[in-house]
Write a structure and sequence with these properties.
Chain A: It comes from Miscanthus lutarioriparius. The complex is a heterodimer of chains A (463) and B (617). Chain A is mainly α and 463 residues long. Chain A contains 22 helices and no strands. Chain A has a domain of 254 residues. In chain B, 27% of the residues lie in helices and 31% in strands. In chain B, helix 1 packs antiparallel against helix 3. Classes of the chains: A mainly alpha (463), B alpha+beta (617). At the A-B interface, helix 2, helix 15, helix 16, helix 17 and helix 20 of A face strand 18, strand 20 and helix 16 of B.
Chain lengths: 463, 617
């Protein structure tokens, strides 16, 4: 198993390298599915050029990314070795970043599995442990991330989304392994790069507080109550409850402390970089402001660009609020409902962000599909998987065709492309709702667990 | 007395500079502008009253220059100058000078302004690119407006906006579209050296017609009823290949206001014999006279004008040909004959050549209605000649297809002018300044600038001496590019390319004919080392002729490139409601089904639990 995994991972990395080194210029960088105004490396190069000319990189509506990326990736965009496309060094970095992200996803998967085994053991279900888990979810998830065509296209297509994805993965990994500084670093960086991961603070705190995903507390309660019924020992019950669901504040406070430190670091570095050319205020206006007000109406795989290109100016502000609030609205209900599954909650939030963010790209989808792999055992019996799978394939084939018809040939119009965007949003919604509903209504993987508990509960009653 | 009154303005000017000896120079930094101006006006008034000098008179001159062009066309250039002495000496009353203009100058504190309406494109190859005519009067198609204000920098943008509206009303044109901050820019040195008080805007698509000419003529004291303006017969001047109507204002405390109105037209002589139209080497150039060109004859001058002259200019090449043929350059020689004998003959000099052109001068005041002037040229021998071109022929074009991205290319073709002028030194270089304004929806990647000289790629630093970029802001600012290039003299062709992405606009931002595309205004290429100034050594202070004064001014050789038409992708204009409803439906679907999925659990699981419990019991 392990050997096959490493072979596959190496093959994926090798495939990326082949595409980067020998693929020639695939023009992926200008695909609307791949690079958005926020992540485009070409815009970063323009921002770097402006900065070199001692103009603010944010003057002009070209660059909307982080100043840190500007100073790390900027110098690399300048050099152009002969015979290769412009951003080859950056692409090599992105390959490494993707590999690192995949490794972290794998490690996260292992952590989750260990935690799960531990909690099952604590429920005296060693048999279920050995039975139920047959596939290593971490391996599957990291392979999904490595071999996902969208992740590959994003990695090769000169845009900074792999770095954003890596930061989210670092955050989740750090939280799963209860490394508060790492989690805080990932959180601060991810928020700094693209704002939306800010809502992931809820699962991160839950992860740090409760530890990785465990069966619902109800199960423990039932178990506990059955135990209390069977041998009437209050003492035992309380200790078990404490073991399972107590919220430990220490790592959370630790996390908040580190959050503060990293934020200061990032702000300080940004202000140093932007010292002579504009300041932090301009940075916030041009990055977060640009994200929240959907100023760029160039097409992408989402639906908001066309909506804001067509909506009457009078309603623009209203809809801006509505669409941005849409993300916030579901944060709390989901957190309440899924608080015992913080890692799954993180996946759900990532998917929501990918659906509703103002400039979505294939890279965002690659991230949540990779995270989805972590729950492959639990979601094995999800509904509509066939429909979803071919829906995703269909959309990713049709979208470039429609784009080509509209933009390049001039034979189709904007509605064609918008229709694929609508279909894609619907598909994502179905995937999200199904995975949530499935997890919630029929926890199939827990079914044996539950049955075992119920039977153990029922036996003393029967007798 | 006159000398005395002229002395004052000079003193007043010194008053502005802190280094001046005038006792009130300190007023400016501490007092508000209004207070200062009122003080200034008070002073001017008292100074004028005190001097009690006979004020300088308002003057009006009218001139017309006709020139045969190598491609069988004729150029007619009307030049009217009205000048008003410094405001203090005459108060608010004007005799000849248009009141609208003087009010405009005073209200907006304009120190320089130029407004041009142009239809057609100046043909730099055929009609010349190195003479004062092409550098001053070849203008980009549509409307071009620039103004220099004598105001603090913070007030200039607001004043510019008001100015555009005023001019829009004055000239019946949509100059008010230049009000939007996306339409104008503030170049620092690429267009004209300034301290940030210059604003430049262009409307390439503005159509120019007689409705713009009429208000322009209204500024003339005799309108088009008498004098040289009488020749402006609409059907004939709008028939031309190039039509540029310009208004230039200069104002200062010492000069007063000088208003130059010029109209440059390139016409096809309306010759009688049809076969002459077929251009052929062995064939005569078309003969023409005023009547052929304008359908009118000149019957005297406008009575209020100080001088009223008609010039016929013949090019250097023709002069050379005449000299070669051995005859002297009188009005009737071996090659051509003019229909009237001129009152004067003036030799012009270019600053690089010994002799550049000849001017035959006619004084319109010698002619009356009974004896009108109908000056023209009749060719005796077939003649082929060329005009002096600019050092490089600049043209601009678009590359790439599709509506997503593209490149702008600026190409320079050498005309080998430097060889004629300065021999051929091996390592010389020619400077060229490029000034280009790009609307925000053409998102230029300035880092993608690539330069090819004679087909081989050069690094930017090899060629670009100085570059100043104001990048475009979405829906806020146009992009401005000013670049100083240094080309090697031996260069035959050079190309600059810049990549751009096409923007996507909101449905309301598209013009009614969205699918026609959007215009990028002309770029301006100037060659600062070359001056097109002429000098007229034989005549004393240039007869008081504003036209020749203009020709003597030191102006760099410049040429405008083509206007580019960029097609932009359009959304579907017909279905905003559909888009809104579809999008909202999808989002409602997302929100509703997600909440439903979250809500559903409670009941179901409990039911399930109960079921199991029941079963187990």
């Amino acid at each position: 198993m392990a050997i096959r995994y490493w072979q596959m991972a190496a093959a994926a990395v090798g495939f990326r390298l082949v595409l980067v080194l020998f693929g020639g210029d695939l023009h992926l960088a200008s695909r609307p599915e791949v690079s958005t105004p926020l992540t485009s490396l070409r815009r970063l190069a323009e921002g770097y050029w402006l900065k070199q000319a001692s103009v603010s990189p944010y003057s002009g509506s070209m660059y909307h990314g982080s100043p840190l990326l500007l100073s790390i990736l900027g110098p690399l965009t300048n050099s152009r070795p002969d015979g290769h496309h412009a951003h080859i060094y950056c692409s090599l970095i992105f390959v490494a970043v993707d590999f690192l992200a995949a490794m972290l996803i794998r490690a996260t998967g292992h952590k989750l599995q260990m935690a799960r085994n531990r909690s099952l053991k604590s429920l005296d279900l060693t048999k279920a442990v050995n039975d139920s888990v047959n596939v290593s979810a971490g391996d599957v998830a990291s392979l999904i991330y490595l071999w996902n065509p969208w992740a590959i296209v994003t990695c090769v297509g000169s845009c900074t989304s792999p770095i954003e994805n890596l930061m989210v993965v670092i955050m989740i990994y750090g939280a799963c392994s209860r490394l508060a500084p790492l989690a805080a670093f990932g959180y601060v960086m991810a928020t700094h790069l693209s704002l939306y991961p800010a809502i992931l603070i809820v699962p991160v705190i839950l992860l740090l507080g409760y530890g990785p995903d465990a069966p619902p507390p109800k199960v423990f309660l039932i178990k506990g109550s059955s135990a209390s019924k069977s041998d009437e020992s209050d003492n035992d019950k309380t200790t078990r409850q404490r073991v399972v669901q107590q919220f430990s504040w220490k790592p959370v406070l630790h996390f908040i402390f580190w959050l503060f430190i990293w934020s200061c670091h990032v702000l300080l570095l940004s202000s140093v970089i932007l010292k002579k050319v504009g300041g932090l205020h301009e940075m916030f206006e041009k990055t977060y402001g640009f994200i929240l007000t959907v100023k760029d109406l160039s097409p992408n795989i989402g639906v908001l660009w066309y909506f804001f290109a067509e909506v009457f100016d009078f309603f623009r502000n209203f809809f801006l609020i509505v669409f941005n609030m849409n993300i916030i609205f579901v944060v709390l209900p989901l957190a309440i409902r899924l608080k015992h599954r913080p890692c799954f909650l993180a996946f759900v939030y990532t998917a929501i962000v990918a659906i509703l963010k103002s400039y979505p790209s294939a890279g965002d989808s690659a991230l949540y599909l990779g995270l989805l792999g972590l729950f492959v055992n639990e979601l094995a019996e999800m509904q509509f998987t066939f429909f979803l799978f071919f829906g995703y394939i269909g959309v990713s084939l049709l979208s470039p065709v429609m784009h080509n018809l509209w933009i390049w040939r001039g034979t189709g119009n904007a509605n064609f492309y918008f229709a694929t965007g609508l279909a894609y949003t619907c598909l994502q919604t179905v995937l999200l709702v199904e995975s949530c509903a499935h997890r919630e209504t029929r926890p199939s993987s827990l079914l044996p667990t539950c049955q075992a508990i119920y039977s153990s509960v029922a036996e003393p009653i029967k007798s | 007395m006159a000398a005395h009154s002229r002395g004052h303005p000079a003193m007043r000017e010194r008053g502005f500079s802190p280094a001046g000896t005038s006792p009130y120079w300190w007023i400016r930094p501490c007092a508000g502008p209004i207070l200062f101006l009122s003080l200034l006006f008070l002073f001017l008034f008292t100074a004028a009253a005190a001097s009690a000098a006979a004020p300088e008179e308002e003057k009006f001159t009218e001139e017309l220059l006709l020139r045969p062009l190598p491609d069988r066309k004729a150029l007619a250039h009307f030049h009217f100058r009205s000048s008003a002495p410094p405001a203090a000496s005459v108060g608010r009353h004007h005799h000849i000078f248009p009141k609208a203009i003087s009010q405009l100058v005073k209200k907006y504190h304009i120190s320089e302004l130029e407004l041009s309406f142009t239809q057609g494109r100046w043909n730099y190859e055929q009609w010349g690119g190195f003479d004062p005519m092409s550098t001053n009067n070849a203008k980009p198609p549509g409307v071009e407006l620039w103004a220099v204000f004598d105001l603090p920098l913070s007030e200039i943008d607001a004043t510019w906006k008001n100015l555009t509206h005023t001019l829009s009303g004055l000239f019946c044109a949509s100059i008010n579209f230049l009000e939007s901050s996306t339409a104008f820019s503030a170049p620092r040195w690429g267009f004209k050296l300034n301290e940030g008080n210059l604003r430049y805007g262009a409307l390439p698509r503005e159509a120019v017609c007689t409705e713009n000419l009429t208000p322009w003529l209204k500024l003339l004291p005799c309108r088009d009823k008498a004098g040289i303006a009488f020749l402006l017969y609409r059907p004939s001047i709008y028939k031309g290949y190039y039509h540029s109507q310009k208004l230039k204002l200069r104002s200062s405390q010492s000069l007063g206001i000088i208003l130059d109105q010029t109209l440059t037209v390139v016409l096809q002589p309306n010759t009688v014999s049809g076969e002459q139209l077929h251009s052929n080497h062995g064939q005569l150039q078309p003969n023409w006279s005023m009547r052929h060109l304008f359908n009118r004859k000149l019957s005297g001058k406008c009575l209020v004008s100080k001088s009223s002259r008609v010039f016929i200019e013949v090019d250097k090449s023709i002069v050379d040909n005449v000299n070669k043929s051995g005859s002297d350059l009188s009005w009737s020689n071996e090659l051509f004959v003019l229909s009237n004998s001129p009152d004067k003959l003036i030799k012009g000099q270019n600053h690089v050549e010994i002799q550049s052109s000849f001017l035959y001068v006619y004084d319109a005041s010698n002619y009356t209605e009974e004896k009108p002037l109908d000056v023209g040229i009749t060719w005796k021998l077939p003649l082929v000649w060329t005009c002096t071109p600019s050092p490089f022929h600049a043209s601009r074009f678009l590359m790439g297809s599709g509506n997503e991205r593209g490149s702008i290319a600026l190409s320079f073709m050498s005309t080998n002018l430097h060889k004629q002028i300065s021999g051929s030194p091996t390592d010389c270089s020619i400077k060229a300044v490029i000034f280009q304004v790009v609307p925000w929806y053409v998102k230029v990647y300035y880092h993608s600038l690539e330069i090819f000289i004679d087909g081989s790629r050069k690094t930017v630093s090899e060629v670009v001496d100085k570059i100043h970029v104001i990048p475009s802001e979405d829906k806020l600012l146009p992009g401005t590019l000013e670049m100083l290039l240094r080309f090697p003299c031996s260069m035959q062709s050079g190309t600059l390319t810049l990549d751009f992405d096409k923007g996507f606009l909101h449905i309301d931002e598209y013009p009614p004919d969205a699918n026609q595309g959007f215009d990028i205004p002309s770029a301006l290429v100037s060659f600062p080392e070359f001056s097109s100034a002429r000098s007229y050594p034989e005549i004393d202070p240039v007869l008081g002729s504003p036209l020749l004064e203009y020709f003597q001014e030191d102006s760099v050789v410049k040429s405008y490139t083509e206007v580019l038409l960029v097609p932009l992708t359009t959304p579907d204009f017909s279905m905003p409601y559909n888009v809104i409803t579809f999008t909202c439906t999808v989002l409602a679907l997302y929100f509703g089904s997600l909440l439903n999925a979250l809500r559903r659990r409670i009941g179901e699981e409990e039911r399930e639990l109960k079921k199991t419990e029941l079963v187990s019991m």
